[in-house]
């Protein structure tokens, strides 16, 4: 059997504890770019940007580790933490 090496994978991600000033489309795109290439925001987030929770579909490089905590600097001084939960993480083969 031929071995196929995947360069990137799509992942559904839930992000929690998003600062209120980062919940607009631009802020979510900046946060999402720390994980990978954002493909789509959850419809609930688009309709209710006031939630501190957001679902995003990403394309992530297969060779990189998956971040579960993101530290964001806001207003050049305050550090906010965003928690990241992956909906389904495949097993990596060696």
TrEMBL record:
Name assigned to this protein: Uncharacterized protein
Organism of derivation: Kingdonia uniflora
């Amino acid at each position: 059997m031929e071995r196929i090496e995947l360069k990137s994978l799509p992942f559904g991600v839930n992000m929690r504890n998003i600062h209120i000033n980062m919940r607009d489309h631009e802020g979510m795109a900046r946060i999402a770019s720390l994980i990978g290439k954002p493909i789509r925001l959850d419809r609930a987030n688009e309709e209710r940007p006031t939630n501190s929770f957001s679902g995003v579909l990403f394309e992530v490089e297969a060779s990189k580790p998956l971040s579960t905590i993101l530290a964001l600097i806001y207003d050049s001084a305050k550090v906010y933490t965003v928690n990241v939960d992956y909906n389904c993480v495949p097993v990596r083969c060696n």
